Each structure stands twice: as C-alpha cells, then as structure tokens.
Amino acid sequence: MLKKFATGITLTAASVATIHGINRVHTSLSTAKDLLHNSENAYYEWRFGKIRYQKKGSGSPLLLIHDLTIGSSNYEYHRLINNLTEKHEIYSLDLLGYGMSDKPAMTYTNNLYEQLIADFIKNVIGRKTSVVVTGESISFVIMACHSYPDIFNKIVCINPQNLYLQNQIPSRQTSLFKLIIETPVIGTFVYHLFANRTSIEKTFWKTYFYHHDEVREKYIFNYLEAAHLGGYHSKYAFASYAGKYMNMNILHELKEIDNSILMIGGEKEKDIHTIIENYKYYNAAIENYYIPETKHLPQLESPDEVLDQLRMFL
Predict the structure, then answer these.
(1) What order do you get walking across the sheet with 129-134 strand by strand?
(2) What's the pLDDT score for residue 262?
(3) Distance (Å, rounded) from C-alpha 68 to C-alpha 108?
(4) For residues 31 and 257, which has the higher predicted lDDT (pLDDT)?
(5) Residue 6 CA: distances (Å) to CA of 11, 110, 235, 252
(6) Contact at 8 Å (CB) between 233 and 105?
(7) Mean pLDDT of the region 58-76
(8) pLDDT at 189
(9) 185 CB-contact burial (10 Å; exposed 0-12 / middle 13-18 / buried 19+)
C-alpha cells in the first residue's frame, strides 16, 4: 500500500512539474517578441499597482479605454491615435490586470475599474475628459460618469455589452471556475488553453473582424503578448472576467447621466442593433452609428470610418 501511495505521489509530482515547465515555456514564447515596450510608455502609480499609459497630441483631452477580453490593451486603438492628436490630447491606458499594467493577484470588479478611471482623470489628466471605450468596459465608464459627472465630457461607446448579460452576477459555477483558474500550475495551464495563439486567432476571425483577410499577424502577436505579460499573474483578470465579477447592473446610472453619448456598432456584430436600441430605451439622448462590414473591433478593421464619426461627434 505504501509503495503504491509513494508511486502515486511521485507520478503526481512529475505531472505537476511537467505542466509547470509547459506553462513557463508558453509564457516565454508568447512574450519573446517584446512588442509592447516602447519609449512612449508612462506609468501612473495607482494604489493597486502601476498603470501603463501613453500620452500624445494637444487639445481637449480624450481617454481611450480598451475592452476586457483576453489580450486586450491600449494596442486596440493604435490605428486611431495618431490621427486624433491634432485636436486632442490623447491618453490611452492599459487597465489594471491587462497589457503592461500591473497584474496583482486579486479579484477585479466593476467598482475597481470605476475608481481607476475616475482617479486617472483626476490625477493624471486633470481636466474634464471625453472618453472612447469598447465592449464590456462601457459599464464602469457609465458608473464613473454617474458618480463623478464633473470630470466627464462626451462618451463614445463601441459595441456595448448586452444589458441582460451585463446584469449577470457570479454564480456557484462561475465562482468555481474563477477558483480553478487562480490555482497554481493547473489554473495557469487552463488559462493558457484560452490564451494561446490559436485561440486568439480564432477570436479575431469569428468575433473581432468581419473580413478575415483584414486580420494581420501582428494583431495576433500583440494580443498574445499582452495576455502573458506578468507571467502567471496574467490570469487573474481573466479569472474575474470569466467568473462575472466585473459585471454590474447599470440601468439606474444609464438613465440618470446626461452626457452626450454616441454608440458605434459594427454592422455585423451579433444583435448589435437590438443591444443599442435597449440602451436608447433607458437613455433617449444616445446617438448611434453602424460601421459597415465590421464586427467587434471596427477601430482596427475600419479605422477611417470610426475616425470620421469621432471627429464629427467630438
């Protein structure tokens, strides 16, 4: 019996060591190109960690906030930034847990990001600011705008999250999945199943872009690197995202804010017309525009059309 037990322990230890080795190799290969480091990076020392951002241009301040999906970072807006710098002082950041910002081992929530955005505008920008924001990050911008109306100007939302899905809170199943992802070695291995090159490439083809031939290899590698910077800590934001800890019911705040809001939808994004109409039901002042033949990231797939809308609205 003792011999069998010892054999079992030995095999388990060997398996864990092998998986750990695979995890380290995968992380090393994913970040080897060092694509996100450049001389324009600056850092805001926030209370929960350093926040990477870039500042360009002059004029009225404009803050660009990326989505919450795997590999998201301020790279999402790189095709827009230089074309907005003549009239705007552009700030593009990596949220805590994403890109080159710190990725502490903690639970990431809507309220955490709401406070981050408010603090960043107050302490770094220092002026009333317009915001461009994508996907599931829209909820905490609306929350922050409601809580701190004096620091927000106009808001542009690209492909907002379905309000029904946004209202979903953590369940026993999603909390368990979060716990699994956060476990050492095995959890990191599971995260890598979602954050490998093949998975990210499929997401670009199926979700982010309508035209597959517009997906560039450099997009894949930049998202892959952003998803793995920070080593095993890179998984914690995803764990909270998958566990639905970043969700929040925003209907009350959506009804009460009176900022000018433009919602831009990718014409081919699933259910986007219905989703935006639902937002307009709760706030009739919302304007909308659909970018033809695009899906979730029109700022990457069709940046010129997005720029036209931003220039007219802002």
Answers:
(1) 42-46, 49-56, 88-93, 60-65, 129-134, 152-158, 261-266, 287-291
(2) 98
(3) 11
(4) 257
(5) 9, 46, 32, 59
(6) yes
(7) 97
(8) 92
(9) middle
pLDDT at 11 over 60: no
Outline where the chain has alpha helix (H). 2-30, 110-120, 138-147, 163-166, 172-182, 186-194, 197-203, 217-228, 236-242, 251-256, 272-282, 298-301, 303-313
Enter the pTM of the model. 0.92
Question: What does the block give as tokens for 222?
Answer: 């930049």
Residue 6 pLDDT:
41
Helix (H, G, I), strand (E, B), or coil: what is residue 223?
A: helix
Average pLDDT over residues 128-153: 97
Q: Answer yes or no: are the C-beta atoms of 123 and 93 closer than 8 Å.
A: no
The token pair at 52 is: 């990477």
What is the reported pLDDT for 40?
84
Phi, psi (deg, nearest 5) at residue 44: -100, 120
Site of tokens 């951002």: 53
Report the run of H or E that residue 64 belongs to, with start and end.
strand 60-65
Cα radius of gyration rounded to whole Å, the chain:
20
Number of other CB atoms surrounding residue 71 within 10 Å: 29
Residue 5 vs residues 1, 14, 18, 64, 229: alpha-carbon distances, Å: 6, 14, 20, 56, 38
Does the pLDDT at position 286 exceed 50?
A: yes
Amino acid at 309: Q
Beta 60-65 vs 42-46: how paired, if at all? unpaired
Q: Does pLDDT of 212 surpass 50? A: yes
CA atoms of 267 and 256, how far apart (whole Å)? 28
Diameter over CA atoms, the chain: 76
**Residue 110 identity (one-letter amino acid):** N
